[in-house]
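Team,

Forwarding the record for the chain on the shared tracking sheet. I've put the sequence and predicted structure together so nobody has to dig through attachments.
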Amino acid sequence: MDGRWKDDGRAMDGRWKDDGRAMDGQWKDDGRAMDGRWEDDGRAMDGRWKDDGRAMDGRWKDDGRAMDGRWKDDGRAMDGRGMEQCWRSWGGSRVEAEDGAGRSWCCMFHQPQPRIAGAIPSKRNLGWLTPWVTGDGARAVSTVSRWTHVLGDMRISSSGDIACPRHRRLLPEVDWAGTLQERQKGDFRESFCGHTASSSCSQRGWWFDPMTGQLSDQVFPDARGETEMQRHGQRILCRLSLRCGRLSASDGTFLASLLTLMLLWDTCEPTGTTDSRPNILLILADDFGIGDLGCYGNHSMRTPHIDSLARDGVKLEQNIVAESMCTPSRSALLTGRYPVRSGMVGDYVDHSLDVFNSLGVSGGLPRNETTFAAIVKQVGYRTALIGKWHQGLNCRLRGDHCHHPARYGFDHFYGMPHSLTGPCWPDPSRAMELAVHARLWLCVQLLALAVVTLALAKLRGLVSVPWSLLAFLALWTLLLSHGWFCSVDSSRYWECVLMRGHEVTEQPMDAQRAGDIMVREAVSFIQRNRRGPFLLFFSFLHVHVPLPTREDHMGTSAFGLYGDNVQEMDSMVGQLLDALDVNGLRNNTVVFFSSDHGGHLEARRGHVQLGGWNGIYKGGKGMSGWEGGIRVPGLVRWPGVLEAGRVIEAPTSLMDVLPTVAALAGAPLPQDRVIDGRDLLPLLTGEAAHSQHEVLFHYCGVYLHAARWVPRDDDAVWKVHFVTPVFSPEGAGACYETGFCACAGDNVTHHSPPLLFDLARDPGEATPLSRDSEPRYDAVLRTVDAALAEHLRSLRPVPQQLALNQDHVWLRPCCGVFPFCLCDRERGLPEITP
């Protein structure tokens, strides 16, 4: 009609009318554009995308995928850098592809963009392997002749057909095979990552509609392959995904062939610092006996979540700590070194003094010591310590935090800088004390303000107030402060403290609630860092006395408060493992569970046992020679890499954590010091049959009490005791009269010749061997003596940090203005339900 479209109403004088799409070139009824602007659905206003927030001046906003072309919230790319923990963009890598028509191009993998017909992928856009095809609905088939991903010497090749029916786009299964080859640099050897897979459509994948540009996670057929790369000194899990999906098409026009290569995986760079490295979750219990776990033979204590680590992973039968007290054992775990090397020991006769006994002491883990957190942080890991620290806090002044976890490589800290003590729980007067503190502090502030104001006013001649009155008010203020300080002289107020970062959040803490808050912090850290890699060291306050336990767990076990506390800890381990599952991190996270030493046999209230059980092994906490004090659980889970249900009898040590974590992260070990730990990966994966430890030494403070030798060509595990504690009362299995066994002095027995046991035949160390009963007696002692001499030559004199075990008031942490230090900044947080 004069060039006008009439019946269908699409145009009148070039205007679109009935469907309202345009009026003078303006789109109206559906509101998509008004003067070229999209309105109702809000996608663009002056070319800007609005309601769904994808772009604002070309920027993607609400879903956070890009801000100035950057992908943000889901973390897949930030300036072309891959950040997704499992399926990552190969940002910065080179892709060569050639379609069926012979066209080829290079492109950078980045965010997918809907393409128009016949378009060729451009730099920084996802490369479609075939051009768009339009037609009249006939079946069209286009063949991808070749695609190759090139990164150094790494190549993958594949091909496949894409069939496009009229009213739907279903990308078929694609059979493919590829080989990865990576030539390592430096001290890494050439390694191969072989992979052959026939795709079978499973349940989840990425669904992409080119008509809307939507990309979302939906249920649809998926073809996925996984392969494992073995490196010299480390193992990496490489994944790639080849996705297929159903695409909708409108009547009249449709897309014929589309292969969206979501190659969201890591680049496996030669340095070993790629994002395919696993996350690491280290879980450490406190004072937990090896005999309290079902997987170690306890059939009456319910610990299903911890036991699942043994079922799904590897169980270490002879896992040994370097010391049987908290502070030195934890320093060995952190540094991979005997505590005698770092000075985290004392020469006390009373072994109970071989820990930091106050937050007012100036000692702590030496600043020149390197922890596993510092090692992996240098290669890109996010690190956190949640829970118990017990490695010192301040040096010269309150708040200098010279021994704070942040000084040793931990990006985030929430927990207890000290350790649980008896006064921490129960604390029935805590609420009243906080209320009195708040009112008294207000009164003191008002009095101080009045004294200062009146003094200044008197000096300026504004008021006439006797100086004696001002002196009385000032003295009364000081007396109130001093009286309050004297009333809070219990360690509850100065040791039972929680911190978030460098801030005190609870003083004194609600010990019954603390475990739940720590789990909350851990779950939050996992969620924030789910794209990894991260290292989370979760250091339980459980099951140290006084065993603070939530009421809903009390009375749930057959072993009183201790059993209730153990089962509460197990439920919290379950919450940590669930957080990994919920965030899709189960297969890409190495989980390690252990304890800092054996159970505390002397922990009793009357005839009620409050300490752990060490099974068949003699001794417990504080007894660094006997097995019960130093043999602890060791469970390692890494699905798909470590064989489920495997048991390792070879000796391992908690000092092995540092070199093993370094190997997992692809980080070098410090070369300027002796590292006593050994990389466990070869043993865990089955590549090595024997432990790298031939001889392990067992210290009680600075005093060497025992050593073990495990010959490579023998099944024997020789244990030599030079010194043993004297149990009290006589004939008991612990030092019940003193609370802790001694390291030296009158309450120990020196053995010459040493006691000798074969733990393979006598794990309970019940019957010492002699020259008459063991023909190898002298040979074993000579071997151990030679190893001991070599070990002693490797030691260097260092300051003893535990010799600084004197409490100083000016070093104690304070939540406010000293001495008004009580606070509860966690009050009002929602409860966590197990």
